[in-house]
Amino acid sequence: MAHKFNIKDMNRLDSPERRKMLPPEETLIDAGLTKNDIFIDIGCGIGYFSIAASIIIGPKGKVFALDTSSEMLEELNRRIIDKKIKNILPILTKDYDFKIDSEIGTFALMSNVLHEVDDKVIFLKETNKVLKTQGKLCVIEWQKKETEKGPPIKDRLSKLQVNELLDQTNFKLLDSYSIGDNFTAYISKKIPK
Known about the structure:
Blueprint: H1 16-21, H2 24-31, E1 38-42, H3 48-57, E2 62-67, H4 70-83, E3 88-92, E4 105-111, H5 120-130, E5 131-142, H6 159-168, E6 171-179, E7 183-190
Parallel strand pairs: 1-2, 1-4, 2-3, 4-5
Antiparallel strand pairs: 5-7, 6-7
Helix pairs in contact: 2-3
């Protein structure tokens, strides 16, 4: 069983330290999110990236904020109400069923989620299903090295592992780059089967 994030630690998902290590707006813009995108935040948690995305994509864009935790989505709903956000739709999902239409999104994000998934191929195939052809996927993962924070090194994914998983699930890797000292971003696009 992969290491799963403990919902008791949800306050760590939006802390000054995390904003310094992985600034949400800058991270999304660097990954290529633009105005009017249909953004799918897979494993959205409390909305750390969903809220930033809602601003970047503007009122004509839409955010599908997906999570398997009702507690996380309750906190996201509270934040949506507090900030009077109109373009985020929180959705309670199953592990391998995202509960949204096929080919709906133009951009999907999976931030520090893939290493927690048991069947990564099925998970990425479900991600592929909900993206339009040529839709972008940004996978952000902890680098496979010892760090002060983050999951155990045995649960982390190497660059080679991520590349192979993307290749197996009809994604073409366009770019990969480090985000600070801890993370790697993998930018790919959905290719026709």
